[in-house]
Automatic annotation (TrEMBL):
It holds the Pfam family Vps54_N. The keyword S-adenosyl-L-methionine does not apply. One of its GO terms (molecular function) is syntaxin binding. Keywords: Coiled coil, Golgi apparatus, Protein transport, Transport. One of its GO terms (biological process) is retrograde transport, endosome to Golgi. One of its GO terms (cellular component) is cytosol. Belongs to the VPS54 family. It comes from Glossina pallidipes (Tsetse fly). Gene3D superfamilies: 1.20.1280.130. This is Vacuolar protein sorting-associated protein 54. Residues 254-407 form the Vacuolar protein sorting-associated protein 54 N-terminal domain. Signal peptide: none annotated.
Amino acid sequence: MMDVAQDLAESTSDVTSNPKYSKFTEIKYESISWESCYYCPCLKFACISDFVKHLRERHCTREGGSFVCRYGFNGVCPSLPLDGVSDRDYDAHVNKYHVNQNSRGMPPEWSVFSAAQNLPAVLNDPLRGKQVNLFTKKWGADFVEKSHIPPSTYLPEITYHDFEKYISKIGKRYRRHDHFTMQQNLHREGESLTCNGIVSTSPTHGVSLVAVPEIFLKESLNLQNASTFSQVFPGIMEKSNGEERRKTGRVVQEKLSHYLDIVEVKIAQQVSQKSASFFHAMTSQDAIMTEMQEAARRVQALRAALQMLHKSVVIDTFRVLCFAKRRQNFEDVLDKLCLMATVHKTQPMLQLLLGTQDYVAALDLIGTTQEILMQELNGVHCFKHLPMQLVEMEKLIDKMLTSEFVKYVTGDLNRPLSDMLKETDSTCAEEDKLVCIVMGLLRKKNFSFVDTYKEEAINSIRAIIKQQIIEFISTSEREICLTGTGEEAQDLSIAEWISLLDKLTVALLVILERVQAVTYIMGQTTAAAGGSNHGNQSIAENNEKAVNLIDSEAFLTEADRACVDQKLSELMDVVCQYCHRRCANLVAPQSLEKATATVEELCHLSSLVEEFSEACEDICGIAAVPLKMTLKDQAIKFANRFHSERKHKLGLLLDAERWRKVDIPNEFQKLIDFIEENDISELTVKRSSTSFLSGATSYWHYEDATEMPPASPLLLVESVPYTLVGTALLLVQMLCEYCRYGQLLPIVAGYLSRNVVDLLRTFNSRSCQLVIGIGAVSVAGLKKITSANLALLSRALDLILWLLPKIKAHFESLDSTSVAGYEIVENDYRGHIKELENKISTIVYELVALQLNSWDARPPIPSQSFRQISRHLVSLHKAIAPILPEKQMQTIYSIVHRNFKDKLREKLLQLGIVKNGGPQQGVVTSELTFYMETLRTLKALPVEELDDDILENIWEFNSCQ
């Protein structure tokens, strides 16, 4: 271990070579021994066995049956095998290596000063770069050049002046503490000298109670106890000889006398110290006796004065008080008798109040009487049965209130509906009676009357619905059986259902207004019972809903009032929701699913639902969600049927389409003009707009007839002519129908908008299959797909693209969340148009390429190939010029012209013709001149492309090749 320490010391840096730290290391070596643990410096050991026990407990681990010593750096002992030894060998190892060798010194603890240079860190230092003399330098402290480390700017320099304030503050306290400690030490030395007999200034100075045994100073000294007796008289019973016992007794007596003298001396010493106090007490005793005699004399005089005052004043005064008390008792007895007479008249008064329906006053009288019997007349024998009678009377009033309330509610709700024409001031009959009953129920805290009214209202609504259905069916000529709930057996038509719903909503609104009126009166009564003036103020402001309330004190707490208000609010919600559900059940039976509803019927049904929902919302403040959902389901069914029919119709029209242009009916032109000038949503507002759709449809029924309306070969859209096929016209009509139905049925506007997207996608995909995919050859019987067919489809797509933003804006105004797929449809249509243009150019290019493949640069000029190319260009122009606009046609011809130049360059390269001024170049120039004259005659290309640059472009490209 010492060798290892020396090697570490030699390999340290220049920091460890400092003599300051070397001295510290030597001191630490000398201080280590078995008395302390090197790794647990806070522990000290008195013997070697404690040190060995500590090493076994803290620095040893047991692995199976072996012991592994951990007393070393990083928990590894360098003198013991890693696999461990037995228990006996471990003790020998500890005694040899850690007990005996420990006195020589352990290797120093690792610190920052023990660190040496790390060879990988030095070699990989990026700041030093490549070192030339790396392998020629000697390893050690001088391996790395020394660098001066400047002092830190963040650490201030500490001097003696920084501690002057602290030293001046603590110095005075320290000197005072040192002086006090010195005095205490001198005092202790004087006491110790006195106890040793060195100083003795008085006979009693050396006397101390320490010489007296402790047993004599205890309060529990009992000589009857054997142990105590043996301690007081030690060995006296062990002597067998009488003379010895007497000697021992005398010795004990002398000790006890000595102890007694010590105690007497201590007592005398204490008395002498307190002698001044004793003399002072004896001196003041005479003065105290004189003061006590004077006090006794004054007490005797005071008692005589009090006795004379009692005889002359107190006796007469108490007699007057007794007479006053007796008079008060007589008056109390008279009041009790009057109170008993009043209580005796309680039952007749209750009958009188119940006869006038003043239930609140009757209940107040019962409560007041019960309170008087419990407090004022408690124990009166003649009234012992009255409390039970009052309790029974209170129960009877409660039953009367409940039955009267049910009777009133039943009569009010089941009044004939024709009575509404006679009700002027209020829709509630006998308001005063209702106020009396509700006030009594509130006084009894019987809040279940709200639930009772709710049940009665629901039963009344159920009866009204059944009655209305029976009355409606009685007027029908068909035989219809009813179900148990009063609903018909699903045999009515939709028109009959709508008529029934119209009458039923009117009847239900009458019932709801009655319920609202009764609920309003109950709410105002509750507010008055709770002591709120808000109800009275609102009544004064609105004379139409005036309620005559009973003048009484507030008896409802705030919590009770809130509970009743919540029940009343829930009452209106439940009743309205029940009406909505029953109406929804009428709108959505199975018969409506089988029937076919027209849009007019759905609009009528929608108006009925909206009016009923708005009226219910005005009454109770909630919307008719179930009824609206049922209406939406019916509208969605209509929209699904409408969309499936239109989609099927569009498929049939596309399959039968011959892709030829048709004349545009005059009514259809008016329809497009109307959409151009106005918003598409006004098709449902303008009465004449319906004739647009009907007129446009009638054209297809008048085909080949003499009465066919005048038509035009072109459709003008914003002064732009359109040549169209018949399917495109019918598709526009279908789209207008979608917009019209979306305006009439806004509840399914979003659904119709998505159907429009689906219809447009169907048209786009199916037309692409029929025209570009040549499906029309097999489906419609066409011989081939011509450029005119492609151009007609392109114009149809252009017309849809013009109409698409208007349709999108229309449906976005109805439902902003239903226009998600319009951008995709627009992109698909534009891509389809681009594909049609490429298809037309491809057809012409194939014909041109076929002619160029057989062309050779030789007379005659123009050659037969270029003559055929010109004929193809002229034929293309005749086919698409009446259909496509000029700009689109120029785009197609630009593509054809570019493809022609590319193909001609390939042909020239194949023939090996170059720009050398020879005969072949002249032939090519003549051919191109003829070709360009044809294009100039057709005016198919833009003006900037009709010059003679083609003569130079071809040769330049050829030379580059």
